Amino acid sequence: MVGKRIVAIRWLLSVAALSAALSPVAQPGGFGPQVPADGGPMPRYFSGTNCRASGYAQLGNEPILFAYLHLNNELVASYAYDPNDPEPLHAITLEVMFDSSHWMDGTEVEVKFGVYGASTGWHVATGRSVVKNTAMLWEHPDPRIDAVWLAESLLQGKNYTLDVRNGGRWSREEYIAAMDGSNVIFYDGHGTPDVHRAGDDNGIHWYDHYEVPRIVQIGGGTPPFNSGAPPVNFIYLLCCRCGLTNNFVRACYPYYMAWGGPWMENQALMAWRPEVLLKDYEILTVEIWGPMSGGLTAAYAQTAFEQKLLNGDLDLYVYDQFTGAYRQMVPGDLALYAGLEEYGCVRIKSVYTGTNEMPVGWYRVTIPF
Predict the structure, then answer these.
(1) Do residues 126 and 141 share a domain?
(2) Given a cut of 90, is residue 27 above it in pLDDT?
(3) Backbone phi, then psi, for 327, in 5-degree steps?
(4) For residue 166, which of 42, 101, 197, 258 sits 20 to 30 Å off, Cα-Cα?
(5) C-alpha 17: how far from chain center
(6) What's the total number of domains in the chain?
């Protein structure tokens, strides 16, 4: 950091003469810097791995020699005028996409955007919002099921608040209440194509107990400017036949973000089509949450798992969803429902890229200037 400051100081000294030369024709004023770049309100929260931060500035006709974008004092984007270029910029936008779980759930994040005008020096604008990332990890109390602790272990230290139910009876109403504020959901227990069981064996239906309450919980407006909870990025239902249709994708309502991305950008439902065996739940937990907790996508985790089936590295069996026949597990038994434009590219760690490439870090520049 000290080295970067020294370089910055040397750079400012090197353009001092240029600033003096340009200042007689500069017209300070104009719009000045603003955060966000469009001049609108800050998001009500930062949640998930496809958050945006930006700044825009115009100082009348005054040349802009330097600009930076900080998130909690970490430099994520910058501009510096190169004297070899014909002339400096007179208006500039810097924007990044970032993984909000770079910070702990509940952290306030300051977006700071600064520009250096040739004659008027530094101008700075700031905005703030809070991080909201909760992983809901709930298990049916059937004593034969004991896998949620593995998901909890894999998500430890990832800056999510972990809401864990491992043992003991719990109700449908408690489950619905826990969804309010959770952007990652894992349920392991018993299910059918339309219902999975609560901890007291009442049914949790894809419409009555997912879509209807999610509409209320999201509230008015489009995320991340809505009045209520953040949307669900990823839900994994480890139970029988809940993946036979995409009904449970309703957990991801309202499916769109305010910046106009595609349907279900950075969202997905993963669930099983056949009847899976309770004795395999630990394996089926680690095979998904292991890669995803390390920043890989849901589609990557699914593909890697299926390759192990094809290679014979995993020898697992299911009861067929149509005939009930006991058979070997095959690719396609694990369903993944996501947006068609970026199929299954959801991440819960590392910045969202819309691809299944390896993690690229916690942020990426989307508009350089």
Answers:
(1) no
(2) no
(3) -150, 170
(4) 101
(5) 45
(6) 2
